[in-house]
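REQUEST FORM: STRUCTURE PREDICTION
Request ID: SP-0412
Submitted by: Lab K.M.
Chain count: 1
Length (residues): 126
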Amino acid sequence: MTRYQKGASAERELLNSLYEMGYAVIRAAGSGVNALGPDIVVLKNNAAIAFECKSGYESGLSIEEEQYKKITEWAERTAFPIYVAWRINREGWFFILPDELRKTERHRVITQREAKATNRRLESVL
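STATUS: Completed
RESULT:
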């Protein structure tokens, strides 16, 4: 399975979980730096939350600065909360606020240890 297929599979997993929880869900076409917004938007009772999905990444997560800027700009334009939804193998989903990612020269990063320390799971962001 390619990295793209693993990522798309993880997105569908989260999308299906949200749908089963009673949310209306939208999965955006495209991904990565070329996307103008997040991967998933969920709606319920006149409220919305957006998710930029990532999966894998053994020791830490890295998002290119350009992609980070696009998702944070999207959040500013919509006033919807946005989370980086990171599926860590054998650990499940963790939800990171964009400002929790540390800036490096060309990326925004977080380690697994830092993500786990937030202990932010799906139920807590909904």
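NOTES: The radius of gyration is 14 Å.
Reviewed by: T.R.
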